[in-house]
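Internal QA ticket QA-208
Title: Verify multi-chain structure generation after dependency bump
Assignee: T.L.

Test input:
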Amino acid sequence: DIQMTQFPSSLSASVGDRVTITCRASQTINSYLNWYQQKVGKAPKLLINAVSSLVSGVPSRFSGSGFGTDFTLTISSLEPEDFATYYCQQSHSVPRTFGQGTKVEIK
Amino acid sequence: QMQLVQSGPEVKKPGTSVKVSCKASGFTLTDSAVQWVRQARGQRLEWMGWIVVGSGDTHYAQKFQEGVTITRDMSTSTVYMELSSLTFADTAVYYCAAEDSSAWYYGRGYGMGVWGQGTTVTVSS
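Actual output:
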């Protein structure tokens, strides 16, 4: 199975801050990397697929980059509605595995 | 509007089984792989398995190979997940989610774009 490791596991930031979350795969997954946002008590929501393609309706302050085993999610200027937990997930192989999540909290 | 609607919360005793349904509307279910993901309180998302709806092929994570069965009913656009021999550790929220299998390249895809609202399963004596 492909292991996905995210870091940090949590971070505190202020509205307007630039935030970067890192995700590492245990083996190459080319560009089959997706990012999800989950708010408390809600289902996850697909934000970005194929490393950098924003899903329709996702604000342009979100961006993704990387290839192979190392990937990043960046929020260029944090908004109040962005406080949530973010998960990376590989869709290269089965089982489809997730990172452990990064909780973005208000400083 | 593409959506998946799941069945309601369940409370079960240890050793019994639970069957959760996931009904699709607003998109072509036969072009999807419907996956089940669970999340214990405060824990990460855990992928359990999927069914490729068009072919009926299933795949389960190793941890769930003995206890999980995923099926589909094409006539009602519904996918089911049955979990047997429940233990307290199975207490979690269970989500179904759809990935577009028509865009696959040798089974490699582009993420789960439609999610159900989640079903809470509580195992309690």
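Spot checks passed. The first strand of chain A starts at residue 4 and ends at 7.
Status: verified.
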